[in-house]
Design goal:
Blueprint (H helix, E strand, L loop, with lengths): L4 E12 L2 E7 L15 E8 L2 E8 L10 E5 L5 H8 L6 E8 L12 E7 L3 H14 L4 E8 L8 H10 L4 E7 L8 E2 L4 H11 L7 E6 L1 H13 L7 E5 L16 E8 L2 E8 L4 H7 L17 E6 L2 E3 L7 H5 L2 E3 L3 E3 L3 E5 L4
Helix pairs in contact: 4-5
Protein name: Flavodoxin reductase
Cofactor: FAD
Organism: Christiangramia salexigens
Length: about 350
């Protein structure tokens, strides 16, 4: 479950002054292991100054293509993003976990209308989804609203224009710039008026079946709210966070004392005792248990596991649905035990 594979970087493409795409060479014997659905991400593992780093990046290439590519935007103070943008070269080898994630498109045989709202590097999984719709659903349409500071900061700007030119009656791109005024683009940020313009004005004749949102948490929350005000149902909205600013909620269960924890991963059982004020993932890693994880911030699903005995509460959850929680799933990076014993199965997901 938590296995990483050494993959060679085939090519590094400079997308903007602050973003590069890493294209990986997938050996023939790993093609099945690294097959993916549009919208999924990979976790990259490396070391910096003797410390292990894991980072999740969405695939921007389409399933079934010859490309296996992610895009990394440099973040001030970021450890891996700085390395990727300034030090990596073609031929370097990185440890990569096979694709995962639930922010996906499942191609349909029906004709559908899709819309996406993306900001900054949130375009990466959206591009994979767009390419898949254009290829697999030959009569479906896609409307993308994409926010950036300027044209120079717009990842995949040229590629999106080329796709729009190739599919002029099926792909529609609305660029939004907060720092510069451009012809045929919106000025400002993606806000209420922007969303209403898309769904109630320019594309009102397109009843949208699904909305994909990716970018900062504030944008996702705002756009979701406006869509719901327009009658869009929860199950029509899919979102993926790159960062989260949500405050942790107070745990309601018993957080005093210790819990005897048993973890199952890769068909092996491990046991340890932990203080209930800590989270399960942190203590598992302290005990050198090779459990899967990536962001450690509750915004991906890499550390998802199922509770088979006992209870735990999450201090933050923006990934799991109510039904999944009811089935016993938790994000172990956010889970505090609240019972004397707790059994968690990473294999049963």
């Amino acid at each position: 479950m938590s296995k990483f594979y050494p993959l060679k970087i085939k090519e590094i493409i400079r997308e903007t002054a602050q973003a590069v795409s890493l294209s990986f060479d997938i050996p023939e014997e790993l093609k099945d292991e690294f097959s993916f659905s549009a919208g999924q991400y990979i976790t990259i593992k490396t070391e910096a100054k003797g410390e292990e780093i894991r980072r999740a990046y969405s695939l921007c290439s389409a399933p079934g293509s010859e490309d296996f590519k992610v895009t990394v935007k440099e973040v001030e103070g970021g450890r891996f993003s700085v390395i990727a943008n300034n030090k990596l070269t073609a031929g370097d080898v990185l440890e990569v976990h096979p694709p995962e994630g639930k922010f996906i498109l499942e191609p349909s045989e029906e004709v559908k209308n899709y819309a996406a709202f993306a900001a900054g590097s949130g375009i990466t999984p959206i591009l994979s989804i767009i390419k898949t719709v254009l290829k697999e659903e030959t009569h479906s349409k896609f409307v993308l609203t994409y926010g950036n500071k300027s044209v120079d900061d717009t990842i995949f700007f040229k590629e999106l224009l080329e796709l729009q030119s190739e599919f002029p009656h099926r792909l529609f791109v609305e660029f939004v710039y907060s720092r510069t005024r451009e012809e045929n683009a919106h000025f400002g940020r993606i806000e209420t008026s922007t969303v209403n313009y898309i769904v109630k004005n320019k594309f009102r004749e397109h009843p949208f079946d699904k909305f994909y949102l990716c970018g900062p948490e504030a944008m996702i929350n705002h756009v979701s709210g406006v869509l719901k005000d327009n009658g869009v149902k929860d199950d029509q909205i899919l979102f993926e966070l790159f960062t989260s600013t949500s405050e942790e909620k107070e745990i309601q269960g018993d957080t005093d004392g210790n819990t005897a924890v048993t973890i199952t991963v890769d068909d092996e059982e491990y046991s340890f005792s932990m203080d209930r004020s800590a989270v399960v993932l942190d203590i598992a890693l302290e005990n050198d248990i090779d459990v899967p994880y990536s962001c450690q911030g509750g915004i991906c699903s890499s550390c998802m596991a199922r509770i088979t005995e006992g209870k735990a509460e999450m201090s933050k959850n923006q990934i799991l649905t109510d039904d999944e929680i009811e089935e016993g799933f938790i994000l172990t990076c956010q889970a505090h035990p609240t019972t004397p014993t707790l059994k968690v199965d990473f294999d049963d997901v």
